[in-house]
Write a structure and sequence with these properties.
By secondary structure, the chain is mainly alpha-helical. The chain is 80% helix and 0% strand. Helix 2 packs antiparallel against helix 3. The chain is globular. The termini are far apart. The mean pLDDT is 75.
Length: 207
């Protein structure tokens, strides 16, 4: 493959992951201020989020590699039995639930590259309830995106392409923010259950 084509693809992938890291880290902090009734501090949100970009990028790649390994392993073990290949679905979901609290661990606890281990520890014994919460949040966000996207498409002839693109660009980060808030509150609840740490004690790290 032409190196000239590979570099832009890699750069685009890094940009997408970096955007994901920032847009996930931001609502984690916002959720705590909202929970405690504190005013928004946008500048601080971005500062903390940008500091977390590098470890979130690396750990996101780690999660991707784990998912790839699990998919390959399930496929290998069920070779010749097509119906059993469906086991890859719960296996992947279990891994996602295990590592679902990686971002709050990195952003709030400054866990760095220990974020995956920290998430695995917090979710142990609660992975299916955590997964159910996140799936429900994802479904609600998807429905909302679908409805709004349909409305934008329906009135597309009445607005300019620029306005339509701006609306779409606003909707999807909002959906991601909703998911991030659900993750943040799940993280807080598990720390309260397992470690007796209240939300205000967790949020104190941002002061």
């Amino acid at each position: 493959m032409d190196v000239g084509l590979v570099i832009p693809i890699v750069l685009m992938a890094v940009l997408i992951f970096a955007s994901y890291a920032v847009m996930t880290a931001l609502p984690v902090q916002l959720a705590y201020d909202a929970k405690l009734g504190q005013k928004m501090r946008v500048g601080r949100y971005y500062r903390v989020a940008l500091m977390a970009v590098a470890p979130i990028l690396i750990l996101s790649l780690g999660i991707f590699l784990v998912l790839a390994a699990v998919t390959f392993l399930v496929g290998f073990l069920t070779m010749g039995i097509p119906i059993l290949k469906l086991l890859v679905i719960p296996a992947v979901l279990w891994v996602l639930a295990m590592f679902s609290l990686m971002v709050p661990a990195v952003v709030i606890e400054r866990a760095g590259l220990r974020g995956l281990a920290r998430s695995a520890s917090l979710t142990k014994g609660y992975r299916w309830p955590v997964l159910g919460t996140l799936v429900l949040t994802g479904i609600c966000s998807a429905i909302l995106n679908g409805v709004i996207g349909f409305l934008i498409g329906f009135i597309g002839s009445l607005i300019s392409d620029l306005v339509a693109n701006i609306l779409v660009a606003t909707i999807y980060p909002t959906s991601l923010a909703t998911f991030g808030i659900a993750v943040a509150l799940t993280y807080a609840r598990l720390r309260e259950i397992k470690e007796g740490v209240s939300v205000d004690q967790i949020a104190a790290v941002f002061e």
